[in-house]
């Protein structure tokens, strides 16, 4: 089945999961991590996916990215089931940033970012002048233009993550998924990267969905949150989820409290 995938408007530029079953299939059995999940991420927003270890965050993200098959239900991008996309159409629609570094670490930052043009350059992968401009603009957007000739092996974790985000921007997809992009960053690096993602969502109209363990950073920067717990997704703005008690239930500790107005977490250190 062939479909057209024009850049959608913000109104239609959304990610949705409907009745989604996620998990793994081996030759011997079917292992379901979560069933009948339902949630949506709106266009032009940063949505943070929160969940404990083993809750299925990465499995859900990989299923949305079609890196592994869903076990039931649907994943939609702009109202189109991802099962209907060819590999090329998906590559021009959805960008994915994982925590792992590029395998070819001896190539330069500019060369990595240029790989984002692969869905458009044909068999030989030759970049036109327009492609080069797009690569330059992608590096400029994340503030790494000055590093274009550096080897990837010389980059810090934060610089590497910015490089991979620039590669995805060069891919020119309306949707970006990220799996734990702040996992190995210090506090300053986490804040900088989260602010960058929020800015890209708002200024470029990207729909950005990222999995993270960092609840505090998500509360401060996310437009919306998905909280995956006990096989169910609670969704809404940080304030909505604070008012409903979903965040406090997710925290699950009496000695850690969330202020619903300021969205600040406090820890009772009295014993």
Q: How much of the polypeptide forms β-strand, as a percent range? A: 25-35%
Helix % is 25-40%
> How many beta-strand runs?
12
CATH superfamily of one domain: P-loop containing nucleotide triphosphate hydrolases
Supply the number of helical segments. 10
CATH topology of one domain: Rossmann fold
Unreliably modeled segments: 1-9
CATH class of one domain: Alpha Beta
The chain-level structural class is alpha/beta
Order of helices and strands: EEEHEEHEHHHHEHEHEEHHEE
Major sheet characteristics: 6 strands, mixed
Tell me which oligomeric state these chains represent.
single chain
Strands side by side in the biggest sheet:
6-7-8-3-9-10
CATH second-level architecture of one domain: 3-Layer(aba) Sandwich
Mean pLDDT: 91
Distance separating the two termini: 63 Å
Radius of gyration: 19 Å
Sum up the overall morphology in one term.
globular
